[in-house]
Amino acid sequence: MTDKTEKETLADSLNKTLEKSKGIVFTVAAIIVVAIVAVAVFATLKSKATEKGIEQFDLIAYNLTNEAKDLSADDIAARQTKALEDLTPLTEKKGIVGVRANMLFAEIKFSQKKYDEARSAWLKAVSGDDKIYTAPLCYYNAAVCSEELGDTDSAISCYKSASEADEFVLVDHALFSLGRVNEGAAKYADAKAAYDKLISLHPSSNWAELSKSRLIALKAAGKIE
After folding, report:
1. Termini Cα distance of the chain
2. CA angle, corner 160, sides to 127 and 143, nearest 5?
3. 132: left (phi over 0), alpha (psi -120 to 50) or beta
4. How far is CA 34 from CA 25, 47, 149, in A?
5. Long-range pairs of 202-207 with CB within 8 A, sequence gap ≥ 24
6. Other beta carbons within 10 Å of 218
7. pLDDT tens series, the chain, 225 aa
8. Residue 47 phi, psi dihedral angles, 5° rounding
9. Phi/psi of residue 178, nearest 5 degrees
10. Helix crossing, 171-184 with 206-220: angle to 10°?
11. 54 CB contacts (<8 Å, ≥6 apart)?
12. What is the dihedral of CA 62, 96, 92, 47, to 10 degrees?
């Protein structure tokens, strides 16, 4: 077989293969186009669903707080009950709608001194995305609820999570509270670590000054070196 004949044979073979696979190539291309369209439609629908959810949330919040200062205790309670009822389906939503709904749900429950339900809602607001900007506040408030419930382990865990966000506006308070709760649980090394971190982070803050005084007291009592 000559080189020319071999080249022609290979070319013919390739052409035949392409002819046979042409339908598959076109089918794959069609699937890709359909997928791109589907993603675009999904994104549009998701955006519209989010927009609708935010509108629903805003209306609930407005109905709860509008001219509330002039309401009686019974009227406020009635508004809270209605708001909780309307918020419930939104608390199951993903993204910003679910976050905002759970945070408002938690605020209402906290005001009613239903700390267990408030804590659950605060934590639900960060479930699946603890990097969201509202996460430190949610963890901090969950910690406060845990303290109200006498749940020291949960309070420590939540204050720790809140304090890990250095840019959190209440990070000093979170760190001091972490130290205080650890100190109350006789976890003196952990308390010292929290106080030390606070002093290192913001040495001139009022919370840092309080932390320094606690370290002096713990050393004087022989609890830490």
Report:
1. 91
2. 70
3. beta
4. 14, 20, 53
5. 202/171, 202/172, 205/172, 206/172, 207/172, 207/173, 207/175, 207/176
6. 18
7. 444 444 445 445 545 544 444 444 444 444 445 444 444 444 454 577 788 899 999 999 999 988 888 889 999 999 999 999 999 999 999 888 999 999 999 999 999 999 999 999 999 999 866 678 899 999 999 999 999 999 999 999 999 999 998 789 999 999 999 999 999 999 999 999 999 999 999 999 999 999 999 999 999 999 998
8. -65, -45
9. -60, -45
10. 20
11. 96, 97, 100
12. 100
Structure tokens of 160?
A: 């720790």
**Whole-number Cα distances in Å, 39 to 28, 35, 45, 85:** 16, 6, 10, 33
Say which residue the tokens 């392409």 belong to. Answer: 18
Tally Cβ neighbours within 10 Å of residue 111.
11
- Give me 76's structure tokens: 């406020």
Output the pTM of the full model.
0.77
As given in the structure block, the two tokens for residue 139 are 């963890």
Distance between CA atoms of residues 214 and 209, nearest Å: 9
